[in-house]
Amino acid sequence: MEESMMNENKQTMNVTVAGGYEPSVIKFKQGVPAEINFTRTNDQGCLDVVHSKALNFSEELPINVTKTVQVPTDKAGEFSFSCGMDMFSGKVEVG
């Protein structure tokens, strides 16, 4: 599990998408704005989309293009995200 990079007013985590999510568990501090930078590095089909109903995002991930997703940190808990076919998943822990 990796801790996110943080300054006083924002937390950022970089996630590589290649046969899954690395890291697949992301920890953010509650109450500090957070974002995840997803970068897909191979062309495995269903990883071309990342989505999370719990965190209210859905993004297409072109190869070698970083897409940034804002993560709400107002509530503590564990929130999952996954690929377009829900075969690969990860989670965000806010606390």
Automatic annotation (TrEMBL):
Ranges of residues in domain EfeO-type cupredoxin-like = 7-92
Q: What is this protein called?
A: EfeO-type cupredoxin-like domain-containing protein
